[in-house]
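Q: Structure for this?
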Amino acid sequence: MTRLEFWQGNIACAEGALAAGCRFFGGYPITPSTEVAEHMARRLPKIGGVFVQMEDELASIASVIGASWTGTRSMTATSGPGFSLMMENIGYAIMTETPCVIVNVQRGGPSTGQPTRASQGDMMQCRFGSHGDSSIIAVSPASVQEMYELTAKAFNLADRYRVPTFVMADEIIAHMRERIEVPDTVEIVERRQLEKGALPFAAGEDGVPGFPTFGQGHGVHVTGLTHDERGYPSSTDPGVHDRLVRRLVGKVEEARHEMADYEVTNPDAEVVFVSYGSPARSVKQTVRDMDDERVGSLRLRVVWPFPDFALHEFKNARVFLVPELNLGQIAREAARHTAVPVVPIPELGGELHTPAQLAEIAEGYL
Amino acid sequence: MRHEIRFSGFGGQGIILSAVILGRAAAIYDEKYAVQTQVYGPEARGGASMSAVVIDDEPVLYPEVTRPDIYVIMSQEGFLKYGARAPEDAMMILDDGLVQDRPRCRHYPIPATYEAKFTLNRVIVANIVMLGALVATTRIVSREAIEKAVLDSVPKGTEDLNMRALKLGFDLGTRSMQDETA
């Protein structure tokens, strides 16, 4: 059973989080993500959850990390300037393997930029914004329905791999309203708990240690310093650091096949659009309007870890066209995984690529 | 068929809510597809506010309005900013008392604010009067759908007032069309 609603993307995001069992939100409102915080502030206290408006974004992400260690599904929502402020503690969440969900409703940057206009300019920042080698997970919704579904999914991914997971939305998807079929329940993958007496940072084959929830008698030490399997700082032993960082990266990168979530249209195509988020809507319209099997599309719902193998599904591809609301961030990532030419189609300022514009570019390669 | 409806007026008239109600009527009660968007930011404060709905029988992919075919205009400033360049094959519902200019396209002047104020004694429902007139003149959604969507969207205790406003709008819209053919 589902029920129909006519919701704004940000409301769907908040409701998706609640459906997934999120019971803590720590944040600092910022356009164009504010409605997520507003909705969580209204809803959480009524269902036994906690909403805290923190003093800034540094504290917001810190509160989310702390809440997560109590075993509570936790999230924050922000946009460019706030996202930048979160970078240090995002690294701490990666190093301490703290599951959490960070929604970034992207707006035009750098700096305060365009508060009310859409962008996808933070795709590389979410991947590499915090210092040190690391890997994270990022999903990118292209509809109000996906604001709900992918936010819910982000909690499962965060808990499964014990890594910060980003919902990389944009102002267009976040502020538009459209029909959404709200399911009665969503799939919930529980965080695997640490066995009593096991070393808290010793991982099995999948590289993910069990989670020693605070208050369950584990007596765990949690630190951003390089630590051994007991969780004790060990910041000068090259071997300990090498093993830890390779595991933190490997647990995400090696799982990219099982995490992969993408749509392929016309796999025999010669001219292939690669897109994610709101530009994927223009691409879908373009492919439909052109109605030509030589024009195909790869749409990513999970952007990080990047599904390099998805590009190779297009055996006849002569060119990959990558429309993005940035100057070619994912185009550059695609280019390093294929010998086929990759052409960025940047759009800055907040407007989407129009289907007519994309069709004209695709025609040029046919 | 894809229809693009643009609403404009000044802040406080309920321009955004009108678009949300119309989108809801189409997407939930008429089982069509609809996307509602609006102008955010400093340009949307105080001056001309703008909101839009795309309605289609197929999923609405490209969400932005490119060439509106229906306009609902409730202020002179809104007309100048968002309505004056309406193409000749578009159609426009405008608030007779608040918009002085007239477009080149087919248009229906509706005294929505005047009637809301003097017939219903509540100027705040002028946007609902306009919605009634919109549905009467365009049939863009069914009357049943718009009624349900209005009831979903208005504060408790104001249902009766809003239903009367909607009916008044239907009647004004219908009369305006009859005047045209007479």
